[in-house]
């Protein structure tokens, strides 16, 4: 049989070839030769969920511990309070729930519940916490004034003469 060999192809184009029973091979992806009853595909397994807290989940824990309790707030209320999108809150709560840090009450109107007291919650969440600092840069020279930004008082140092 004649076989079309290609380096790559979009999924919808592969589906068209399959519907028309055209023999093809996509390198490292798929072999489809129906006349020989061959249909092999590379199935990608979903990557194992990392055992770290997503930024929004980490924010929820810190808010719960430092500002106000988030127990029994639904996702919409959490999104409004923390200024995140609903989908981000949903994923963050799923992340917390998967790691056993919180539980979810309700089916239609889901609410977050932290069963642990503050100290236990902190100790349970701490191993999963991730630093928000992406990159550290060390310099020996003094930075020019035009590239220095004033920030919160806790984030910069002023040398008094």
Written description of the protein model:
- The protein has 161 residues and is of the alpha+beta class.
- Among the domains are: 4-41, no CATH class; 55-128, Orthogonal Bundle (Arc Repressor Mutant, subunit A).
- The chain contains five helices and six strands; from the N terminus they run βαβββαααββα.
- The strands form two sheets. Strands 1-2-3-4 form a four-stranded mixed beta sheet, with no helix packed on it.
Task: Quickly list its features.
161 residues; alpha+beta; Arc Repressor Mutant, subunit A; two-stranded antiparallel sheet
CATH class membership of the domain at 55-128: Mainly Alpha
What Rg do the Cα atoms give? 26 Å
Estimate the strand proportion.
5-15%
Structural class: alpha+beta
| CATH homologous superfamily grouping of the domain at 55-128 | Winged helix-like DNA-binding domain superfamily/Winged helix DNA-binding domain
Please report the distance between the alpha carbons of the first and last residues. 85 Å
Give the helix/strand layout.
Elements (H helix, E strand, L loop, with lengths): L3 E3 L4 H9 L4 E3 L3 E4 L4 E4 L13 H12 L8 H8 L3 H13 L4 E3 L5 E3 L4 H8 L36
Helix pairs in contact: 2-4, 3-4
In short:
With 161 residues, this protein is an alpha+beta fold. It has five helices and six strands; from the N terminus they run βαβββαααββα.
